[in-house]
Amino acid sequence: MSIVGKGVLQDSPCSRPVVTLHSTSNRAEIPGLIGTPSSVSIQDEIRADFGWELAADLASAHALHDFCEESGVPGWTESGRRDCLARIRAALFDAHLTVLGAAAEPEDVVIAVERGHAIVAADGAIGVLTELDDPIREVAWTHVVCVVSDADGDSAHLALAAARGIPFLLHGHGDNQAAWQGLLEQSETAPANLVLTHQTPSEIDGMYNPGGFTDGDRAVCIALAMGIAPDRIHLAGFRTDRIGRWTGSTAPERKLRKLRWMATILDRSGVEW
Predict the structure, then answer these.
(1) How far apart are CA 87 and CA 62, in angstroms?
(2) Which terminus of the chain is more exposed, N or C, with fewer CB under 10 A?
(3) Which residues, listed in sequence order, are joined to residue 54 by a DSSP beta bridge?
């Protein structure tokens, strides 16, 4: 799909990158990502609904933590992850934010760029940028702050984001251990910088539970946990009536059921969609 010819870059402030990830000092002072009681407690309801065990979520989360700590990759260590989170916070400070969901279309990205929004992509939705033509595609990449992912999106698109240096907020849950391990073991395409999230009521050093369930609504919970006001968070490509084309391999009936939980979380968040 061609997006060239819309005049987005002609004498426009969006011809300049709006997102810069500054390095930071005093990392010990950087707050974590604390979800609201509602956005965290709903995870117990979801586990019960699907018949999932908390033990499986804990095992994957701890394995992800240990894998990163033992990797020797500077951006994957606890201090590196803390610094990455600080840079993401700095990029989103006082910004309007567009979260790209699994049904996002190229026009959604163009609108976000025209409005000067920072962009957060939910997992495989980052692939929508590949459907833009230059020069708007390259401009759009400068607006992308991070990818929120449980590593089940299209590997080629996730690899493209990683190759461009986009940080990942990588999530560990009960049935995705093979997915996150596969992403991180591909050294030529693995993200250089990570923040780790989980979905358990336990405190895990160097990981965060911002609340939420799917990559899309978890991205919203992350933004809210960073103190971004709900009216500054804009959603694109969030659907409950059909499965978005950027969704990874999934069982359709179960995915639609997950999307209904996503809707519940978004409705509670106060973010319009």
Answers:
(1) 24
(2) N
(3) none
